[in-house]
Amino acid sequence: MEPRARVGKNRGQQNFTDQELQSFLFAHGDVQQSLEPTKKVLDELITDFITELCFEAHRSASLAGRQKIKLDDIRFACRKNPLYLGKIEEMLDKKKDIDQTRKLINPDDDKIAKSAVKALEEELTAADDDVDQDVASKPGKSFGKK
After folding, report:
1. Keywords on this record (predicted)?
2. Which of 4-18, 56-70, 108-122 is the most confident on average?
3. Which of 48, 58, 65, 111, CA to CA, is 20 to 30 A from 14?
4. Check: CATH 2.60.40.10 for 1-77?
């Protein structure tokens, strides 16, 4: 049986929780409590989108002679839509930043590794000084005087 035919057997089943769908809808401007039919349609749309994207990525992987899908296959599947491709690149950049930050932290004692301290240090300028200024010396400010 072709994989797409297997997808049809799951029609009508909800794949995402109501809370996930509600949060997504509310974040994109819907009311706080969305209607059930709205959540069902969104669930079906998202499921179909993910399924089609995975099938397209699988096609790319099989042409390359692989059984497993790599990230490059998903990028290739999104090549015609610059918005999708841009979002993927943005998420990869964030993941790279998180991974680099995790390397700086020593998991044994939760202290920053000595070799990474210099990477975190930055030079301070005069604008960075936190000198307490006397508020009472400013014109127009008189505290306790009437």
Report:
1. Initiation factor, Nucleus, Protein biosynthesis, Transcription, Transcription regulation
2. 56-70
3. 58
4. no
Task: Enter the DSSP assignment of 105.
Answer: B
What is the pTM assigned to this prediction?
0.59
CA-based nearest residue to 18, from 2, 34, 5, 31: 34
**Helix intervals (H) in the chain:** 3-8, 18-27, 36-63, 71-77, 82-104, 114-120
- A 10 A CB-CB count for 22 gives 19
Residue of 57, 39, 59 whose CA lies nearest to 47: 39
- Tokens of residue 68, six digits: 């497993």
The pair of structure tokens assigned to 31 is: 């009311």
CA-nearest of 120, 122, 121 to 103 is 120
Taking residue 57's Cβ as centre, other Cβ atoms within 10 Å add up to 20
Token pair 């610059």 is found at 82
